[in-house]
Amino acid sequence: MHINLYKMRHSASSLRYLRGIVSGFLVASLGLSMAETKLPTVIILGKQYYCYESKKGDSLFGIASHYGWDTDVLNELNPNITSPIAKGTLIYYPVTDNITSESAAGENSIVTEQVTHLVQSGETVYSICKAYDLTMNELYALNPNARHGIKAGEILVISQPKTIVTADKHSTDEEANNAPDDVIGENGEDNEYIFHNIAQGETLYSIAVKYDTRVEDIYRENPGLSPDYIAAGETIRIIPGTRSNNVKTEVVTEQSVVSIDTYKVQKGDTWGSISASLHVEQQALRDANPGKWKLKKGDTLIIPRTEEIEVSHEYTEIDPREQSPQGLRELYDEVHSIDVSMTGERETADEVKVAIILDDTATNRDMEFARGALLGIDKLKNSSFRINVMIVDGGDTMSKILTQLETFRPDLLISTSDKSLPQYLVEYSQRTGTELINTFDVKNEAYIDTPTIYQFLTPSSYFNDSVAEYIAEQFGDRTLLVIGNISNTDNVRELLSQKFSGIRNIDVADIEKFVPQDGVKYLIYATPTGQKDVESLMENISAMVSSNPLADIKVIGRANWVTFGRKLSEKYSDINFLVPSRFYFNPDDIDSRRFINDYQQLYGHTPIKSYPVYSVVGYDIITSFLPNIHNHNGDFNANFNVSGTLQSDIVLERINNWSGLYNPSCYILDYNMAGEPFKIRLTR
After folding, report:
1. How far is Cα 203 from Cα 230, in angstroms, rounded to an integer?
2. Same domain, yes or no, for 470 and 518?
3. Residues in the chain where the model's pLDDT stays below 70
């Protein structure tokens, strides 16, 4: 039987697996335990050899058989030994790499650490599982209490410590498949990733070394990671073993030992005389006998016989930029395709291309959005960069739209779909690295695991959580009255039930009969959404307030109340009510009046009134994003300078370093008097 020890040494197998195979093979075929193979070793010209001192009656064949050595190798390395072998003769044999040693077995093994996640406001079990590519059952197995709900500030276990065996170019599929079950095989080429919580003092380079990967690969897997600093506690996604999969080979000339002899030092011998008489280079002679500075008669010297051979050396190339701040910036720019000048400075974009995919050109929504976007482009006409815009009919075939995009190659995609963001646009965005703004579809969750998606309107989970937190913080001392029918889809009400105690549910018809207690402050959460139902409710509340003028009552309405909130405030000025919203356009604001005037001059009529005002959405997106894409060369991790928007604050945040972007901005509109409400920005 023959076993390729070199290949096995580099196998993607575990230590226990290797020990079992190797020890079993040697014991069975040689009748020899591992302990019996232990012999003194010497280092000769950088390589390790067993040194065996012969006993009376020894033969090379018998020694080879006893130790499981190759007889031919033994004869070639000791050519001057003849039979019978004199007692005390030193015999040498190369030490084969010990495949059962801890160091060898651990060369391709990575032990990961426990990974945890700090729950943020607005996150759900579903969104966390999607971000970490877990099933809910897997998350519940690690966090049993999560079955009963999670809350902001809670720490969840995402993964337990495990051993990763990174496959290298020497391992075979058969060897990798035979690894034991408790060792998880990973290979960078398979794009199987793990997660890592950054510890205090760690750098991207130290993390890359720990997981046998490259800094550029860490950047590639974590598009939201900053090149300027990393913070302890952040979580990043890593593909282990990518550095070892980029092995380089070089051929060099080396002196190789072909045989070993010994020499007894005679009186008068010197290093020079021995070197000359035995035809061995003096330095090689000294190197083979370390520690022997002064020769003494009777000393035994090792005499190596060498020849020059060409040897292929494998090495892993390390980019020196991984270890310097400037180098990290260069790697980041390369991964993100950011242009840099000859002096190393980032360049601004001379031209910004934007493609607007109108979902349905027959709708007022899309036509108004396009008009507002073109008005924004007109405002930027005197900017220091060119603007190239393409408006695409989303009703065309997918192949036609993709052909247009491939030809145009935009820097920014904008979709006006409000119900189902087209998957082919998501895939195009991810494949080309082009940022895609999902303008209206608040239910789409592509931003969770697609780093090039920007969710313009606040996602429902974050919106609901922000609203509930604000209500609890500002009015937590009040008694909560829930008025109307409770809906299973009313997530704000569900969140409030967790934050308030002693909630009372009252029918709309009964609110007029409700008698507030003296000294008790009340908060009414109104569930109706239809305008007529809401007006009926407000009539009843108004009647109750009139009957109890000293009662301290505030009302929280549903988000859709923004469409008729002004009418309600004019009709029921005696009721202080608040409405949560993702947007608000005040037509009386000076900048808004200027927009309306410019719009009317350009199109011959005022903007269509809608919620949100679609033309203002297009205007805000164009005037905010295009200058920043120009200034930062398309780097969406840069600090975008977004100010002066008319309807929605624009903020860019990520759930994690590998997710897309979303806008957490939302408001509470306080209708405490007739007319325009006071807009309260909710910050997280």
Report:
1. 7
2. yes
3. 1-37, 97-108, 166-191, 341-346, 488, 684
